[in-house]
Amino acid sequence: MVDTCELCRRALVETNVHHLVPKEYGGVDGPTALLCKPCHRQIHALFTNQELAGFYHSLERLADHLDMKKYLRWIKKQDPNKRITTRKSNQKKR
Q1: Can you give the pLDDT at residue 88?
Q2: How far are the Cα atoms of 3, 50, 75 from residue 16, in angstroms, in the given order?
């Protein structure tokens, strides 16, 4: 689906549905957001599902995290057609 990402606000990007509360923590029927693939991958690279369910279960809280703020400043400048790669955070590698 081509739409506007609700997190980085880039338009005409391919989006998919992100469950704000992960499905494994009861978010199957909960609130969702349409995110571009790079933003969606970045969220899951930075946060565990437990962290997403426990605190980062809104777009405002996600966008307020220091690493996400840096990422959002950068991604907003990127061409919507550019292929973006994502690296897992050092905390999640442990």
Answers
A1: 67
A2: 9, 21, 17
